[in-house]
User: What shape does this take?
Amino acid sequence: MQKDSEVNSAGWVSNEQGIGKITFLVFATLICAAIYTGFRVLPFYYYYYELRNQMEAAIRVSSSETDEEIRKKLNYHIRKMDLPVGSNEELREALRIDHEGDRMRISLSYTEIFDVDFMGKNYVIRKFNFTAQAGGRR
Assistant: This one.
């Protein structure tokens, strides 16, 4: 039978098995926190790139559509991705479509919030500011 604790040269009782359990718990907690953060934050970046792709696609077909049709299509995708842009009126103001000759530029700024609910309170961990934009020839 193995001894779990021994007396070292300084007269202290060492329990290496207990230290191993504490180390495991600390690393397991850190790994769980990293996985949780990844699942909460990675969608922010996915939706950002998806919105940019939708804007680029809208610019490619912009010669056959009006600004209002482009706005409606982008509004649909923005609502589908559940981006925090506010009401339809606020989105209409925030979604910019600019023309310079035969070039077109679409942009939208918004903020995603990474928060955690703990013991009935909501804690904001970090705010992520995004500006999705695309430009090209009509």
Summary: Residues 43-137 form one domain. The mean pLDDT is 85.
